[in-house]
Write a structure and sequence with these properties.
Elements (H helix, E strand, L loop, with lengths): L2 H4 L11 H31 L20 E5 L2 E4 L4 H5 L23 E4 L8 E4 L2 H56 L1
C-alpha cells in the first residue's frame, strides 16, 4: 500500500431518510402496476383485434380447376382438346396379339406336395420343414378332437335322456306300489 491510499477515508453509504425510502417504494410499486396495465392492455388488443384494427382483406375466391380428364363411361375417359396432356399422349391403334413366352418368371420353394400312396385313398402330404408338418398334424388332431367331442356330447345327452325316462318310470312304479301297500295296511 502506498501512503496516499492509506490516508483516504472509506466511502460512507448514502444516508437514507424515511421520505426517500417511501419515495423509492412508491416508485417501485408504480412501475409494477404500470407494467401490469400495459401487458393487460396489449393482451386485450391482441384478443379483440387479431388481424389489426383495419378490416381483414378476404382472399378472392379461386377459380375451380378445369377438369382435363373426365370419366364418361365404363372403361372410357375423355381428355380435353388442346390440353397439355393431350399433346403428350400418342394415339395408337390397339392390336390383339398371342404371346407364347411367359409373362412372369417366379422362383420359390414348394412348401407342401400331395404324394400318392400305395393304396387307394392313402395319399399323404410331404412338407418342406418339420415345423409345417407339426402344424398340419396338430390341425388334424384338433379336427379329430372336435369330431370326437361332438359325438361324445350327443352320447352323453342321449344317456341323460334315457336316465331321466327310467327315473320317471321307476318313480311312477314306486308311487303305485306305495299306494298299493297303504291300501293293504289300512
Amino acid at each position: 500500500m502506498t501512503e496516499s491510499s492509506a490516508n483516504v477515508p472509506p466511502a460512507s453509504p448514502a444516508k437514507s431518510t424515511p421520505a426517500r425510502e417511501r419515495w423509492a417504494k412508491a416508485w417501485s410499486t408504480a412501475q409494477f402496476y404500470l407494467a401490469i396495465v400495459l401487458t393487460g392492455g396489449f393482451a386485450a388488443y391482441l384478443f379483440l383485434f387479431p388481424h389489426g384494427i383495419g378490416k381483414h382483406a378476404e382472399d378472392p375466391p379461386r377459380p375451380r380447376p378445369v377438369e382435363i380428364v373426365q370419366t364418361i363411361g365404363p372403361r372410357t375417359i375423355q381428355i380435353q382438346k388442346g390440353s397439355g396432356l393431350e399433346q403428350k399422349l400418342e394415339l395408337t391403334k390397339v392390336q390383339e396379339a398371342r404371346i407364347t413366352s411367359p409373362l412372369l418368371s417366379v422362383t420359390g420353394t414348394v412348401v407342401a406336395s400331395l404324394r400318392p400312396g400305395g393304396k387307394a385313398g392313402s395319399d399323404f402330404w410331404q412338407f418342406n420343414s418339420p415345423e409345417v408338418l407339426t402344424a398340419y398334424t396338430d390341425w388334424q388332431r384338433a379336427v379329430a378332437d372336435a369330431t370326437f367331442s361332438e359325438t361324445h356330447l350327443k352320447q352323453v345327452a342321449d344317456l341323460a335322456q334315457t336316465n331321466e325316462e327310467n327315473f320317471h318310470s321307476s318313480t311312477v312304479a314306486s308311487s303305485r306300489s306305495i299306494t298299493g301297500m297303504s291300501s293293504l295296511i289300512g
